[in-house]
TrEMBL record:
<dbReference type="Pfam" id="PF06477">
    <property type="entry name" value="DUF1091"/>
</dbReference>
<dbReference type="InterPro" id="IPR010512">
    <property type="entry name" value="DUF1091"/>
</dbReference>
<protein>
    <submittedName>
        <fullName>GH21867</fullName>
    </submittedName>
</protein>
Length: 154
C-alpha cells in the first residue's frame, strides 16, 4: 500500500491505514477532509499488471477514467468492490454507490480483505497494481495504490 501525494490540497487522508497480520487485512482510519460531491470532485482508477511478479509493470487496457466521484463509486466500487467493502461490517465509509455526496468525516476500516468474487474473469494472474486517484476540479488531490497477488482459486 502506498499513499499517492497530491498536487493540490489533500482530499482524503489515508495515512492511518495499515496492512496487518498474516491475512494482510487493511485496518485504520480514512478521513474525508471535505464533503465529496459530483460538482467538483472526481476519481479515476488505473491498473497495471506484472505477470512474473518482478515489478515490470504494464498498464492494462481497462480502468476508470476521470469522472465524478459519485459516478465511480456507484458504477465501479458499488459493483466490483461490493464483496470487499461491506458497509457496517468492515467499514462505515459509505462507498456503496448510494450515498452522495460522501460526507466529510473520519471512517473506520477493520479487517478489510480483498474479495475477488465480484471481479470480472479478465483480470490476469500475477501482481496487480490498482491506483485510486482523487481530484478536485480535475487537479490531482491524492490517492492510494495497492499491489495484489492474483492467483488461481484452488
Amino acid at each position: 500500500m502506498e499513499i499517492l501525494r497530491p498536487e493540490v490540497d489533500l482530499l482524503i487522508d489515508f495515512r492511518d491505514l495499515r496492512i496487518i497480520g498474516r491475512e494482510r487485512s487493511i485496518n485504520g482510519t480514512v478521513s474525508l477532509l471535505e464533503d465529496l460531491d459530483t460538482k467538483i470532485h472526481q476519481m479515476s482508477i488505473d491498473f497495471h499488471n506484472d505477470p512474473n511478479n518482478n515489478r515490470q509493470w504494464k498498464e492494462m487496457l481497462f480502468g476508470v477514467p476521470v469522472m465524478d466521484i459519485c459516478h465511480v463509486t456507484r458504477l465501479f466500487i458499488g459493483k466490483y468492490g461490493k464483496s470487499t467493502i461491506q458497509l457496517g461490517v468492515n467499514t462505515n465509509l459509505p462507498l456503496d454507490g448510494k450515498t452522495c455526496p460522501l460526507p466529510k468525516g473520519s471512517y473506520f476500516v477493520k479487517n478489510l480483505l480483498v474479495n475477488t468474487d465480484s471481479w470480472p474473469d479478465i483480470i490476469p494472474y500475477g501482481a496487480l497494481k490498482a491506483n485510486f486517484r482523487y481530484y478536485k476540479n480535475y487537479k490531482f488531490a491524492g490517492g492510494i495504490s495497492f499491489i495484489l497477488d492474483i492467483e488461481k482459486k484452488h
